[in-house]
Amino acid sequence: MEYIKIGSVEIKKTAVLAPMASVADRAYRILNREFGASYTVSELISSKGLCYSDRKTEELCKITEKERPCALQLFGNEPEFMAKAVKIIEKYEPDIIDINMGCPVPKVAGNGSGAALMKDTALSAEIVRAVKAESKFPVTVKIRKGWDEDHVNAVEFAAAMEKAGADAVTVHGRTKNQMYSGKSDMNIIKEVKKAVSIPVIGNGDIASLDDALRMYDFTGCDLVMIGRATYGNPWIFKEIDSYFEGKPFTPPDLEARLETMLYHLRLAMSDKPEHIAIQEARKHFAWYLTGMYGAASFRARCYSLSSYEDAVKLTEDFRKLQLDHQ
Question: What strands lie across the sheet with 40-46, from one edge to the other?
């Protein structure tokens, strides 16, 4: 098994769980780590929210041992607030601090943070230097191909972040304007890898073992990161990990899917009030059932779950539907 290092943090060269707001919470990170994700990254954490002592923001910073190695991902466009935020999250002992310079959603990029920072290389480099000056942990940066097709600057931007002190860079092969549509460009990841000497993590359109291998082979990247393809599918990490370990992989059967679905909910309930965990589990249940016979007819039930007992009854009814269909 091959490993890479980001600073002093050793990470298996398999696949990383992407940071996804309102999806990759603690329960999600723990689950995917147990299934073979080599490294996890938190949901977006507002540097200003931390500096203004927002309790909900600080709650995002807590890390359990089961998630490690785990990065806390900060966003913001003011170096002084980013530096102060680093000092605040020190007590949570993240393995890595990741700076988001790639989020395309309007409430982040529209306020000058996330992908908007790719329009100001000098400010972005200043942010990296400010965070590095305060951090005792490795510092990484997550970027995109560029703002739009007329402003593709990932290569020079990544080189500037390395010069400012970044210990690694993650590149999503889409522009900000593409959001999550169209095709991710592996060529830009390949060009970034050629331009920098720090580790490069490739991100975008990895939905299978073959996609991961293609990303590694074509771009020469050091790690691959998977986001939306993990929805209801932690087995993607197990398959990739099994390949690199030289072990056989068995796709999940019906029982494995339903058991994992309920286990995921129990993990969430152990971390959050039950009513919140149930509400957030609704989308996950719909994802777990996607592609299976009769899933569409169960979607409404997924989105109306109100208790753990409801979830158990749903799995029992769905199991019966599948068995009757055989």
Answer: 16-17, 223-226, 200-203, 168-175, 139-146, 96-101, 70-75, 40-46
Report the distance separating Cα 79 and Cα 268, nearest Å: 34
Give 67-111 pLDDT, tens digit per residue.
999 999 999 999 999 999 999 999 999 999 999 999 999 999 999
Is the preceding omega at residue 69 within 30 degrees of 0, hence cis?
yes
Burial of 323 (0-12, 13-18, 19+ CB in 10 A): exposed
Amino acid at site 41: V
Task: Name the β-bridge partners of 85.
Answer: none
* CA 196 – CA 207 distance, rounded (Å): 26
Measured distance CA(242)–CA(248) in Å, rounded: 6
- Please list the alpha-helical segments (H only) found in 207-326: 209-219, 235-245, 254-269, 274-289, 295-302, 308-325
Closest residue by Cα to residue 99 from 123, 131, 60, 70? 131
Q: pLDDT tens digits, residue range 191-246?
A: 999 999 999 999 999 999 999 999 999 999 999 999 999 999 999 999 999 999 99
Find out whether 263 and 32 touch, Cβ atoms under 8 Å.
Answer: no
Give the residue numbers annotated as catalytic, written as ranges.
103
Q: How far apart are CA 288 and CA 285, in angstroms?
A: 5
